[in-house]
């Protein structure tokens, strides 16, 4: 009679739910399982209830045709490695111990993402050149921010795990497009607004603010000069009176 190999593995696990995993198209992912001693007849990895791989009681690995060239099974750790991931690989993966009853040891919810497209950041000047509009576009998302004298509002939009944000960093406007596994950005320097709006000086302050500071300095200087002249006049008169006073 053919000897039936019965696995004696350790099975000690605390299954608390699925683990979320995010990967790029073309990447690889390793799905692990924790096992200690337990008798069973076969070990199965499933994808959306379809068998990806079965490890039989005779120590034979049986792979589904659509995964033959893209999966690896570790006979010591029972982990499953998927290579060259495609969008169709997304979904629920389960590690199942099969004996008299089936026991789920691990679950992974895999999401496969395309790399994000490079966003585009543009600006438009209104009839009043100190007013302008920044537009940040990425895929199906768009952000518009109204700016005055180079000061713009930071914004963010999210949809289906994809994020688009418009922010200010140093002297740059940043348009960032990202998903859980990739990001790209476009940027514009604040310098672009200075030739358009005469009220913005090289330091980023409005000309009105700079002019106010200049006028204040001029006034302070004039007051100082007048005070010096008045003091000089008083001293001169006092000295003349002393000189003309009979001894």
Automatic annotation (TrEMBL):
Record-level GO cellular component terms: membrane
Signal peptide: 1-18
UniProt main location, coarse: membrane
Pfam families noted in UniProt: I-set
UniProt name for this protein: Immunoglobulin I-set domain-containing protein
Keyword list, A-Z: Glycoprotein, Membrane, Signal, Transmembrane, Transmembrane helix
Domain Immunoglobulin I-set: 19-112
Organism domain of life: Eukaryota
């Amino acid at each position: 009679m053919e000897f039936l190999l019965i696995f004696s593995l350790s099975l000690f696990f605390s299954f608390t739910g699925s683990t979320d995993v995010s990967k790029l198209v073309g990447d690889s992912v390793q799905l692990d399982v924790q096992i200690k001693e337990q008798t069973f007849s076969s070990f199965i990895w499933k994808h959306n209830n379809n068998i990806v791989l079965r490890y039989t009681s005779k120590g034979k690995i049986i792979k589904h045709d659509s995964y033959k060239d893209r999966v690896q099974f570790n006979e010591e750790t029972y982990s499953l490695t998927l290579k060259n991931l495609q969008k169709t690989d997304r979904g629920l993966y389960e590690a199942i111990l099969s004996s008299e009853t089936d026991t789920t040891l691990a679950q992974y919810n895999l999401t496969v993402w395309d790399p994000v497209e490079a966003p585009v950041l543009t600006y438009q000047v209104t009839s009043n050149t100190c007013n302008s509009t920044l537009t940040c576009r990425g895929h199906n998302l768009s952000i518009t921010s109204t700016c005055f004298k180079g000061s713009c509002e930071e914004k963010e939009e999210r949809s289906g795990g994809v994020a688009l944000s418009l922010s200010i960093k140093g002297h740059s406007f940043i348009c960032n497009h990202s998903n859980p596994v990739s990001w790209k950005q476009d940027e514009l320097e604040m310098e672009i607004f200075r030739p358009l709006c005469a009220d913005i000086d090289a330091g980023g302050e409005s000309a009105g603010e700079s002019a106010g500071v200049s006028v204040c300095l001029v006034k302070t200087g004039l007051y100082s000069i007048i005070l010096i002249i008045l003091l000089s006049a008083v001293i001169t008169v006092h000295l003349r009176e002393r000189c003309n006073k009979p001894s």
